[in-house]
Here is the input.
Amino acid sequence: MNKTGKNALVIFIILISFLAVHAVENDYLAVTGQPKLTHTEKINSGDPYSAEVSLSRVGIIPRQSNLTVSTAAVNPIITLSIDGETQTFASQTVTQPLPESGVTNVEIKISGNAPTVSTDIEAVMLSVVTDVVYDDLNKGPQTEIVRSLVVTNSDIESAVRAINDAKTRRLAAETAVSDLKARGIDTTALETRLQVVRDMISDSESSKARGFPIEAKRQADNAIISLESIISDADSMAKREIDTKKIATVAVVIIIALMGISVLRRKREELG
Here is the structure.
């Protein structure tokens, strides 16, 4: 095959690939109206969750199509109403073939509870995907809607707050130590203590990630106590340095005054 023929073949393959990829982007179904969701960002473990979504046909009818609805909710109930025909499933994932003659409207309802977690996670609480086949080249999944929530609990939230507080106090301590160092004060001991606290905060974050929020909070609280001590000691060192300078200034003034008095006395003595 000559160069022109090869170029033509490459262009043909690219064109076919483009058409195959983009053909399925012409949605068969689409979300209509505003989905009804009990939560939009965060949910506590075990709390009730529900969602309602409506889909309507907006594109041409494919040769074959399946609707897959899934949720991370526990004790799930998924209800599908396809053009008025309703079915209920007690499952986290349901795949339902859609009529070959096409559908006009699909109503989806999900209910259940947020899963039990030992550390905060992002869970897909609502996922609706339509898998369509127009022909051998034009086929693939079409995501209708996906909604995730951060699943947490009171122990995890307490640990998160404590870790954030520790990080805030760490910044304050680092600033205080840096200020002392800039003024020429020896901060070696404080910097050593700061490094220990950094490790404590790191351990706290690790405990939280591994699913031990109570231990994470304890470690973060201990870090905060240590940081408050560092900040207090840094303030004391700064005040001592200021007091030392004041004393030195007063001493210099006194010395100068005494020297002046001494000079005056000598002059008086010389004058008789």
Remarks:
- The chain has two domains: 3-152, 155-271.
